[in-house]
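REVIEWER CHECKLIST
Item 1: Sequence provided? yes
Item 2: Single chain? yes
Item 3: Sequence as submitted:
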Amino acid sequence: MLKNASDDAYRLEVLHCLGTTISEMHNRGVIQPDGNLTNFLLSSEGKLWVIDEDDVEVYPGSVSSKVAVSNLANIVSRISSQPLRDALVEAYMRGAATHIVEGWDDEEFWRTVDEVRSQTEMKWRKRNISTDREFD
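Item 4: Structure as written out by the authors:
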């Protein structure tokens, strides 16, 4: 989704779409626990599709604040650029359900992002995959 996007403005637009889509999913009680960005497909018409639905989890009603933080952190951790991470989170927060926004702990969120990123990089090292990646 982002690997072929060389224009920063376009990347921001894509991440805005992703953040909005994830907030809509969370509001409806749906998460994609595999945060790999290749599980999201952007059509030429600007529609975002969630693929690899085998991992998708469905909750009754909106997801809890805790589930939302964990799931979003998993996805955000796959992006190395802080400005792009921030753009994704800002778009997410604009559409997030009230209980998620009210229960949001910024410090906890970014700590979770760092933890997930560290775990992901350890997996990459074990598989001899470069950790110097812009996106995953």
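Item 5: Key structural point noted by reviewer: DSSP finds five helices and four strands in the chain.
Item 6: Recommendation: ____
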